[in-house]
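--- STAGE predict ---
source: upstream dedup step, 1 unique chain passed
mode: sequence only
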Amino acid sequence: MSRAEGVVTAVSTSRKGNTFINFGGTYPDQTFTGWIPAGTPLAADASISTLQGKKLKITGRIELYRGKPEIKIMSKDQLVSQ
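--- STAGE serialize ---
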């Protein structure tokens, strides 16, 4: 299991309902993304929108999406505010 940590620069939700937690800039210039799939219980959690500007650690498997690293977030256990 890997982890990424830093200050959250943006939290956004797409029209399809996926939620994205970006580090190092806003889309498409972010350096890292944590994404929460639409329809999951965590996607409906209002506390996710309060993470912008906070230091956060995300754990999980890092994969590349369009050349950028990301972690798929399925559980609040994968998120640790610091």
